Each structure stands twice: as C-alpha cells, then as structure tokens.
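User: I'm preparing a small set of examples for a lab meeting where we compare how different chains pack in three dimensions. I only have the primary sequence for this one, and I'd like the structure in token form so I can line it up with the others. Please keep the answer compact; I'll paste it straight into my notes.
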Amino acid sequence: MNKYIISLLFAALSVPASAQLGAQRNNFSVGINAGVNYNNISFNPTIKQKGYMAYVGGLTARYVSEKYFSIICGTQVELNFSQRGWEEMIEDNTNTYSRTMNYIEMPFLAHLGFGKEQGTQFFVNMGPQVAFLLSEKENFSSDWDASNRPNKVNYQYNKKADNKLDYGLVGGAGFDINSKVGHFLLEGRYYFGLGDIFKNDNSNVNNFDKSSHNTISVRLTYLFDLTK
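Assistant: Understood. Below is the structure token output for the 228-residue chain.
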C-alpha cells in the first residue's frame, strides 16, 4: 500500500514538468519559510505521549510551469532545519522525559494553485520527503526513575536513534497572497513517516516494531519572483 501511494505522488510530481496541457509559464520564485512542528512518534509497543512542539524553517524554491484553466501547476523544493521528537506522558509520578531530534529535511512537492494568479490563491502541496538526523538530546527530570512504567517499555531511554535517514510522505494546503512585493503563504502541513528511528528487525526483544514520525506543522513562507 505504501509503495502504491509513493508511486502516485511521484507521478504527480512529474506532471507539471512533462505535461503541456495549458498555457505555459516560466515563474521561478525563491524565499524563506518558518513555523512550528507538532510531533509525536508512532511506537509499537505504545508509549503515551504529549505533542512535542518545536521549530521548523528554511529555504524554499518554487517553479510554476503551466496554467490549465484556473489551475496553476508547478513544483516546490525546500531545505529546512526541522526539530522533532516526543514528550512522554508519565502519570504515575513526577518524572518527565522528552527527546529533541534535529533534522535537515528536504520535501519534493507537486504544487497546485487554484484561482486567480493575482490576489489570493488557494494551493495544495504534496510529495515525498527525506531527512537526515543531525543531533538528538534526551531531557530527564532530576528525580528520573525509568523502572516504574505502566507498560514496562523503557528500552528507548539512553538509546540513540539507529536510523539517521528518515523518509515519508507530506501533504499540505494553504493560501498564497500575491502582492507587488512578493508572495506571502500560510500553510498547514502533515508528514507521515515511513521510516523508523529504531531498528525493527525482530533480532532483539528490546526493539520496537514501529517508531515513525508523525508531524503537523504550520508555517509562513515569503517568496519573491526571479522570473515571471
């Protein structure tokens, strides 16, 4: 099922570059983006968590190649510094635990805009994303005690991520305000991780069957046109 979804998204990415269905465009824009991530990890066995909120931001490049009726077709690539991680919900005592994970990430997105090219436009972005883990840090409370956990899962503590490479699917939607000084974009985005941060090869009972990222982000982007 995952391979089928990835194939569809790569096909969507190839359409703006190859199809010649409508009026051609040659609009290339670059800029910056910044926002917040709301992240957790899908663990199996399950670990109760609070949403982990952190920073995301970086560089954005967008190329619009075609307009078909009222739909603008293009591609968008980003290079972001993205903080993710998780915070555990520990109800039985005063212990607290969280982990901060710093990634460099690169989404490759198909961009579809709906509406007039001037003014406010609704858009959808979707595609694959890859990321590389730069660093991570565990945050323990001063009275930390890992022995008393309701589901007896404690082998994530003092254990670094096994897999630095992360990959998955991302999709988002928002509004693009096209003004005389550039484009101002507000977007909500969801990332579904397909990779795991810990090994899941069943060679050790102290492994997770699943440990993948789920991220909701809200971001602001400013773009200015280099060609139009």
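A couple of notes for your slides: The chain has one helix and nine strands. The two ends are 39 Å apart (CA to CA).

User: Perfect, thanks.
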